[in-house]
Amino acid sequence: MSAAQHLQDKVVAVAGASGPAGQATMRRLAADGATVIGADIDQHRLDAALDAVRTAVPGAKVAGQVIDLLDPQEVHDWADHLEAEHGHVDGLLHLVGGWRGGKTFFETRIDDWDFLHDTVVRTLQHTSLAFQPALLRSPAGRYAMVSAAAAHKPTAGGAAYAAAKAATEAWTLALADSFAKETTAPDGTPTAAAAILVIKALVSPEMRAAKPDAKFAGFTDTADLATTLASLWERPAAELNGQHLWLTAR
């Protein structure tokens, strides 16, 4: 069964919808027949992203919601609203990030950690906590985040970033454990899964156009990321749950 067949009638929320990864992912999900709900904190950016998806995918079932992912109540209300409106929520793809760092370890600024703690860690905590119950109730719930190879091999100047990504990986693995232990399937087989996609960095078509001579060695194209995310519904939850999916060299 193809990704398109697996995504028919699925309801998938995308956090960080207006970024390059979010837009590529919404296009792919919509093209494969999913109902896609994107979230972003900025109405204008969100509207532009949704319009771009509708242009690229005529007939796309796509909508948006302005959400402050640092407000836990807003995120919980969003999850509850989506399940009430559609009857089920089958995925939350967390594509929110950011990078801060320096050249040396000594130059690391603690306010870089503060920024990344909110942008990278806290937003993921809120979406995972809010959507976990609905994903457990779905017959094919999927949660995915994008991590970085830096979490597995930190550099001196990237201490804050590597630590933030490592924290989100640990949190997501705990979510995966909850999916395994709290499954509602009669035979005890997990129906929901949480996965970690590991990249070096992302590159978009716009980035390649702006720097046509750049190699972007080891970078993951946003379209390839979107393809991997769409394929999560092709794999059994028990096989996928708690896995690191490497999209760059280890």
Tell me the β content: 15-25%
Cα gyration radius (Å): 17 Å
Average of per-residue pLDDT values: 95
Number of helices: 9
User: From the helix content, strand content and strand pairing, which structural class follows?
Assistant: alpha/beta
Q: Total number of β-strand segments?
A: 9
Identify the strand order in the major beta sheet.
Answer: 3-2-1-4-5-6-9
What overall form do the CA principal axes indicate? globular
- Percentage of residues assigned to helices: 40-55%
The N- and C-terminal alpha carbons lie at a distance of 30 Å
- Quaternary: single chain
Description:
The structure is a single chain. The chain is α/β, with parallel strands linked by helices and 250 residues long. It has helices spanning 3-7, 20-31, 43-56, 72-86, 110-137, 159-181, 205-210, 222-230, 237-240; strands at residues 11-15, 35-40, 62-66, 91-94, 142-148, 193-199, 202-203, 220-221, 244-246. The chain has a seven-stranded parallel beta sheet, with helices on both faces. It has a two-stranded parallel sheet with strand order 7-8. Helix 3 (43-56) links the parallel strand 2 and strand 3 (62-66). It starts with a helix and ends with a strand. The mean pLDDT is 95.
